[in-house]
Amino acid sequence: MPVYKVYLDQVFLGNLVMNYAILWAAAKLSRVPVHTARLVAGAALGAAYALAVFIPGAGFLQSVWFKTVISAGIVAVAFSPVTVRMFLTCLGCFFLASFTLGGLAIGIIFYLNSGRLSSWDGIGKVIEGNFWPGILLGLIALWAAGRGFAALLKKGKFENLFRIPILINSGGKQVRVEALLDTGNQLKDPLTQSPVVVVEYNSLKSLLPEQVQAGLERDGEADIWNILGSLSEGSLSSRFSAVPFQSLGRANGMMLGFRPDEVVIERQGKLARPGRVVVGIYRNKLDPEGSYHALLGPNVLELTG
Predict the structure, then answer these.
(1) Which residue has the higher pLDDT, 134 or 39?
(2) Which helix (H) or strand (E) covers residue 161, if one does?
(3) In order of start, what are the domains of the chain with their CATH numbers?
(4) Engineered SS bond to 93: which of 23, 29, 59, 116, CB 3.0-4.6 Å?
């Protein structure tokens, strides 16, 4: 029976690098904002698990259920706190990136081999000899594929997949806004638990009362509570509320929520009405190039059936 030397420092470092790349890719796919330190912590947990499997008598660590638990733990360390739905999305993206990068690395390792494989011993030697080149080239390939996909998105090659026009009706007026399907947008109104569609202020301006326009157009950060206080009692004040958020470039933020008469989604030439939806008013541009002006979460689409 062949005997192999295992260098634990190489195992840890290799897994640390690959886990970091996988978590980074998962963050990009799920569109969840995350700090580098959290990614490193999650990657370190995965690397520590890779070392733990070498402990004598710890065969249970390689069982499917334990691998699943560790994967969930890695994702929790890197992305928490998020909603359960968003956590499952991140976990799915983590597995997708894992299988993609792992397949790339293994494929490249054997592609670099020019000899004949006649035994398991030969396979082990190929992996040992081409381990680091395989990981490095796999990371480069994953990065290049990600850049290429991002470039295609930027050019609008997948526009029909991720861009969804929405109509917002209020007080007999209507605006049509181009929205981006954003899996990272899981916002809900804290009072009604209705999903929130984030829309640029300039796209909504014609639907908003003068008091709200004046409050949002002041220099500096908008005072949401002052704007709410300026609204008179009755139906007008009941249409607005404060919506907390932890995305859009900041944590523990607050945006003004607006309840229009109706939000209509255009899908495949048909109109879908999701029901109770809150519109979160965002003062700045969501896209510097102006290709979309709203962020539509999957939780809104689920309401349309």
Answers:
(1) 39
(2) helix 159-162
(3) 8-154 (no CATH), 159-302 (2.40.70)
(4) 29
Q: Which of 283, 272, 279 is nearest to 295 (CA)?
A: 279
Residue 244 pairs in a beta bridge with 254
Say whether pTM exceeds 0.70. no
Structure confidence at residue 177 (pLDDT): 93
CA distances from 42 to 8, 20, 87, 94, 235 (A): 19, 8, 14, 11, 48
Which has more confidence, 57 or 179?
179
| Angle (deg, nearest 10), helices 8-30 and 64-79 | 60
Q: Can you tell me the distance from the alpha carbon of 197 to that of 6, in angstroms, rounded to the nearest whole number?
A: 52
Listed residue (223, 206, 203, 205) closest to 215, CA to CA: 223
Asked if 180 and 287 touch (Cβ cutoff 8 Å), the reply is yes
pLDDT digits (tens, 9 = 90+) for 131-142: 777 778 888 887
Residues 179 and 293: beta-carbon distance below 8 Å: yes
Any idea which residue has 């994702």 for tokens? 75
Report angle CA 282, 283, 284 to the nearest 5 degrees. Answer: 100
